[in-house]
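Quick note —
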Amino acid sequence: ARLLLDLARTDRGEAGEEAILPATLARGVVVWPELLEMARDGDMPTETREDATFWLGQMAGDAVAGDLEDLTSDERVDLEVREAAVFALSQIDGDAGLDALMRIARGDGDPRIREEALFWLADSGDPRALALFEEILGGS
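Predicted structure written out below.
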């Protein structure tokens, strides 16, 4: 896992991006803190940061929902990475991801990020998301 994470950090090509998945599969190793660092690192290639963000949501879920939400509003972060953070939030089981998506959708941040949050909320089928749409559309 260490070798793969180092490769992800240093290789600026496809090998760096492709190293993240196998690093997440290593048994007995906690890699999500490093994935969060990669997602925030503006010097890394966007594609690698997107992959780190995706696997961060898959691995750590509730523990990183707040960090992922912070990424979505950080305008210093590439749009693609911010969108990956919205998607990662949509993949978290339980309330943490959905609650974060609802805050993003209600917020006054980047309209493209709000649109992504609304898309994944619609896909969730959760009654709270439907109530949010009704609220936004002026139905209640």
